[in-house]
Amino acid sequence: MSRLRHPLFAVILTTLLTVPWVFVWATGQAHSLSDLQTVAVSGVAVLGASFMLAWAAETAEKDVPRAFALAVLAVLAVAPEYAVDALYAWTAGANVGTARGAEAANLAVANMTGANRILIGLGWSGIALFTIYRSGSSSDSAVSEQSGIWADRIELDRDIATEITFLLAATAYAFFVPFMGGIGMTDTIILVGLYLAYIAIIIRGEVDEHEEQVGVPAYFQSWSKGPRIAAVLGLFFYSGFMIYTAVHPFASGLEHLGEALGIPSFFMIQWIAPLASESPELIVVAYLVNKARSTAGFNALISSKLNQWTLLIGTLAVVYSIALGQIGTLPFDEKQAAEIWITAAQSFFAIALLTNFKISVREAIGLLVLFVTQIVAEFYIIQRMPEAEATALSIDILYAYTVIYMLLGVALLAMRRDELRWLLDRTASNAREAIGGQSSQPEHAD
């Protein structure tokens, strides 16, 4: 095998992508870089770390259930989003009763809702479209051609029934959060409890008959168990550390560049910063799709949405309370309440799309169009109207899109009630198996 084609060469090359940032971070010179230099150096490091994450997750599938490996990948890939949001929650708790504290609390919620909507509006839709486009030059068995305009679709793995059901439960709960006057410890207990229950179920699953790997994952899987596990842990740790340290400067650099172009800071924090912090996840999934592993890619996206919609919200109340010095509730204003409702409604609609474990080109385009038009409409009024008028009209736009998402979601679930029933039965069966009971998997509705 040529040295340049040996898998270790790819690992070395990818590691070299992270070295400039390691040097800048270790020597404390990050502050001396311009915004453009910071974005370039940290962005390249995030790219390298994303490939390491994907290799670690694929290698780990030989020793642990695939769902658990993807859940670990999802948590690490979106860790930067947790860090950014935790910063705003801490600032809110440390400055309670002041204008700065109130603004930081709203920014924490805005950043969280922006990240969740990006993951579905750009992530789910974009990866679905990329998967179907990519199938023209690959042998992805998950993509099926259908007659009709934009009817080609991805057939998803039915083993993600548990993830979808828990995501539906978290989404249903999220609709009630704005009625409670803020994000408090009750929300933390319920949402984090949901995620822990999900992990308890999937970690007890059987190790899958893993797919034949190529390249770096295949090379590491050929090692004996001890060194292989050490390699996986090393890749997870290094890439997680790299993403944790590099994405915040990357996001901040993008924010400053955007502000220099006249984009409002609040808009940047809600949309540009989360887009930057979500980039590792999107890169990892695009990598998996490019290897014709679209089912694994979508599994990772859904797992990411679940942990952001549970752990991320729960983290806000915990960090806020620590900074406050006592148990407290992270407050938010009417605008952020509307942001939570539209985020929950978008999630509800997206789940309704996946209840039959398929997503077509037109469904993906629908997700994308709804997401983009809402942001463009808000950005337009922010740029053209005084702040008070823009905020009021923005809230009306959020409510309007919330209603659209809900109507579409309810209509889909009504048409797919048999698939929904199968989804819930499958999750209940998985839960019984996880706690040692005997069950048979329900037959799915066609």
Name the features.
globular, A middle domain of Talin 1, 446 residues, 75% helix, mainly alpha
Molecular structure report:
By secondary structure, this protein is mainly α. The chain has one domain: NCX, central ion-binding region (A middle domain of Talin 1). It contains 15 helices and three strands. The protein has a three-stranded antiparallel β-sheet with strand order 1-2-3. A hairpin with an 8-residue loop joins β1 and β2. α5 packs parallel to α10 and α6 packs antiparallel against α12. It is globular, with a radius of gyration of 22 Å. The mean pLDDT is 84.
| C-alpha termini separation | 47 Å
> What is the mean predicted local confidence, pLDDT?
84
Q: The CATH topology is what?
A: A middle domain of Talin 1
Instruction: Give the strand content.
Output: under 5%
Backbone CA Rg = 22 Å
CATH class: Mainly Alpha
Count of discrete domains? 1
Q: Which secondary-structure class do the elements indicate?
A: mainly alpha
CATH architecture call:
Up-down Bundle
- What is the overall shape? globular
Kindly report the name of the CATH homologous superfamily: NCX, central ion-binding region
Which residues form runs of ≥5 with pLDDT under 50? Answer: none
Task: Give the biggest sheet.
Answer: 3 strands, antiparallel
Layout of helices and strands:
Layout: H1 7-27, H2 35-60, H3 66-77, H4 79-94, H5 99-134, E1 143-144, E2 153-155, H6 161-174, H7 185-202, H8 215-221, H9 225-260, H10 265-290, H11 294-324, H12 334-354, E3 358-360, H13 361-384, H14 387-415, H15 417-434
Short description:
The chain is an all-alpha fold. Helices cover 75% and strands 2% of the residues.
